[in-house]
């Protein structure tokens, strides 16, 4: 396994550790723990950085593999979906945003499965990357802002996070529509 693929797998391994601290932070409640929110933010940011690093190294060193094309977007989805779920639980992200994200991911996964039947691996396009970066920046903002804000700033952090989540939903829907359109030939080939 090459270094970019190891970084992708490291991101997958980091997801449960992030989830533990995200679950224990309890943002917006009397039991809120800023330290846990900060640790969750640091873990998420570090995992997000591996996404940039593995892609950069794979392209620079000509180490792009089918495993990486498949596993890298899956690792991103695991990380960002777990974070968005905790943001919904914390009340700073609408369940509608989560539903849009999940619908898009299921649709893209379906297209990839159809393509895989014919031996084709479809890599993420630029819109999928923009969507992932916006999701990651929104999540990083939330966990760091929650950790650094005082108890009187809860409404401000929540409001900004909600606006960012709706922006994520819009970009996610757009990227999904573009992805489906660009790969519509897969539907024609499906048996």
Q: What's the SSE pattern?
A: HHHHHHH
Please give the alpha-carbon distance between the first and last residues: 34 Å
- What is the CATH fold-level name? Four Helix Bundle (Hemerythrin (Met), subunit A)
Give the C-alpha Rg. 17 Å
Strand-residue proportion: under 5%
Overall pLDDT: 90
Number of helices: 7
Number of spatially distinct domains: 1
Structure description:
The chain is an all-alpha fold. The protein has a single domain, classed as Four Helix Bundle (Hemerythrin (Met), subunit A), CATH 1.20.120. It contains 7 helices and no strands. The protein has helices at residues 3-25, 34-60, 66-89, 95-117, 126-148, 154-182, 185-189. The longest helix is centred in the last third of the chain and has 29 residues, at 154-182. The protein is globular, with a radius of gyration of 17 Å.
